[in-house]
Amino acid sequence: MLKVGLTGSIAVGKSFVLECFRELGCQVLDADKTARDVVAKGSDGLAEIVKKFGSDVLSADGSLDRKAMAAIVFADTEKRELLNSIVHPRVFTAQNEWLLNIERDDPNAIAIVDAALMIESGGYRRFDKLIVVWCESAIQLKRLMLRDSLDQETAEQRIAAQLSQDEKKSFADFLINTSAGFDDTKRQVKEVYDDLVSLICSDETDKAPTPKAVP
Fold first, then answer.
1. Backbone angles phi and psi of 117, in degrees to 5
2. Containing H/E element for 206?
3. Is residue 126's pLDDT more than 80?
4. Tens digit of each residue's pLDDT (9 = 90 or more) over 132-151
5. Helix, strand, coil % over all residues of the chain, rounded to 5
6. What is the CB neighbour count within 10 angstroms for residue 214?
7. CB neighbour class for 155 (10 Å; exposed up to 12, middle 13-18, buried from 19)
């Protein structure tokens, strides 16, 4: 099995890219969904967050108020690191269980895990290859403001809270630039997918026994 990490900064189009890989036949896992699951209502992850941050981060129904939590951690590096120390180990455990299940069911699978903070957390080291999704900075800012209904200052603050796009790109085995829209992005995804398939095929060839000569 080929284990592939997929990452990129906020609002660059990672979810769309991940869905393209899914459509091509890859096994995919959205770490944002995993992160929500490990702090779901009633989880030990949420209990730990309330212990550290107080009940003000809860919605009326007892679930995590993600907007309130984001407002706290994006403005304070120490609190952001505290939240990450609660969430990341639980996400890693869930990802590892998923990867083990995929490998058991399909040893030849291309398994892709999408996580925005994969490089910052060091989680990228667990993967055979790393794909970094990026786009032009002005496009990223506009997308974030529209997606999350943010003013420019708040959006810029949230972008600055993460590793820069250029720094993330330096870790990549493959780059996908989403600046030119859906069709161009799909074309790049297909090219990367073909390369990943070639790696799987090459690995299987290397493992295959050498044919015996026919007398």
1. -105, 30
2. helix 182-207
3. yes
4. 999 999 999 999 999 999 99
5. 60, 15, 25
6. 4
7. buried
